[in-house]
Amino acid sequence: MLGGGDFPEGEREEQEHKNKPRTATPKSRRTTGKVRIYGERNAKRLDLNKERTFLVQMQRRVTLRDIAAEAGISHAAVSLALKNSPEVSQETRKRVQKLARQMGYRADPMLSALSSYRMKVRPASFHATLAFVNRFKNPAQYHSNPNFEFYLAGARERAEAMGYKVEELDLATLGGWLGVQRVLRALNCPGILLGPLDREESLEGVMDFGSYAVVAFGVSVVQPRFHVVTHAQVESVRLAMRELRKLGIRRIGMISVYEHDKASNFLAGYLLDQELIRGEEKIPALRMAKPELTSPDLVRWLERHRVEAVLDNNAFPGSVVEGRLPVGTRPWVVNLARGDKHQAGIDQQDKEIGSAGVGLIVQLIQSRELGIPEARKVLLVDGVFNKGLIK
Q: How far apart are CA 146 and CA 133, in angstroms?
């Protein structure tokens, strides 16, 4: 029998161990600011944390300040260099742009969206004047064409909404391109809108376009190859032919004028459609040097091919009576330049073309894409078919 303080031998040793006072860990053995690793399991956990930290660093978006620190210049200079601003030397622009590609820099789409939203909801402040160059020898000829007039109207509306002003410059009135250059400098214009023309023209060497963003309306400028905004002429011809066939008209021809063909793509759309159909519906286009209703060639062509509808690029203005051509088989006339409830044809959406031209040139100005582009942009605006009086 054991007394109050008596324990079996094994239990006594255990009790003495429990009652033994614990001593503090010496300071020399404590960790100071470092995690002590005990065992393989904790070591693997620390390696995983390091990997996660590395991945977070890799996924962080590269900023302008990161590029600036690497390039040794200010972040404002980096911003200008990425926008191709002439305020930064060409050597610096190339170096910064190469460095940005190497570092994987991408513009933040959310910030871009926020900037666009602010521009829409905030009243537009005035930024600059855009020059719209009327290239006709007789400036009034431009305004006599309703399609061209709507280009200018659409451009002015869009420019005003974006904080710009469009100033029309008459090439003939200013005495040529030297006069245009003087006005461009006086108005401090950052961009040039080249108005459409009814014939092909080269502007190679007429002036130095290197300091300006340039957009041409239509396809009349053959050189240099500026950015272009125009009507989708090939698609509009094919649209007109599809809609005419839906109305039961199968024998569709086209009259084209040599001079007009050089500054448009309507004929290309017609020839493409003809290549894709078979049988008697294939009708060769009638190409004329000068459109004349009394032309024997026109009458023979209409009767020989039993033409039911003629696609016309405004070759016979004022000659259409109740939607028909008053000669030969009296076919319906489909005007590729305009169409409404009285005249079958294509509404080219001219104001939309003018508006799209301003939208593009403002984008070029903001990104500092100036002068003759290495790869030009071609923006096409679809037209709308109107059947006019065709039943």
A: 17
pTM of the entire predicted model:
0.68
| 139 lies in some domain | no
The rounded Cα 326 to chain-centroid distance in angstroms is 43
Residue 388 lies in a domain: no
Instruction: Please write the tens of the pLDDT for every residue from 7-63.
Output: 455 555 555 555 555 555 444 444 444 444 445 555 555 455 555 554 444 456 788
What CATH number is given to the structural domain containing 325? 3.40.50.2300
Question: From the centroid of its chain, how far is CA 271?
Answer: 28
Could you tell me the residue range of the domain that residue 256 belongs to?
233-347
77 in Cβ contact with 88 (< 8 Å)? yes
The answer to whether 274 touches 282, Cβ cutoff 8 Å, is yes
Domain count, the chain: 1
**pLDDT tens digits, one per residue of 61-94:** 788 888 888 888 888 888 878 876 666 787 888 8
Angle formed by the axes of helices 350-366 and 146-161, nearest 10°: 40
Place of tokens 């391109």: 177
Within a 10 A sphere around the Cβ of 369, how many other Cβ atoms? 17
Q: Hey, what are 27's tokens?
A: 């300071």
Flag whether 279 is in a domain: yes
Give yes or no for a contact between 81 and 87, defined as CB atoms under 8 angstroms apart.
Answer: no
Query: In terms of DSSP bridges, do strands 227-231 and 286-288 run parallel, antiparallel, or are they unpaired?
Result: unpaired
Question: DSSP labels for 255-314?
Answer: EEEHHHHTT--HHHHHHHHHHH--GGG----EEESS--TT-HHHHHHHHHTT-SEEEESS
**Got the DSSP string for 80-96?**
HHHTT-TTS-HHHHHHH
Give the separation between CA 191 and CA 358, rounded to whole angstroms: 9
Quick one: tokens of 362? 């403002």
Does residue 284 belong to any structural domain of this protein? yes
pLDDT at 52: 54
H helix or E strand, kind and range, residue 325: none
Strands 128-134, 164-170: pairing is parallel
Which pLDDT tens digit goes with each residue over 202-219? 999 999 999 999 999 998
**Contacts from 198-203 at CB under 8 Å and sequence distance 24+?**
198/145, 198/259, 198/260, 198/263, 199/259, 199/262, 199/263, 200/262, 200/263, 201/135
CA distances from 293 to 21, 37, 243, 327 (A): 122, 99, 26, 7
- Tokens 């109107």 sit at which residue? 386
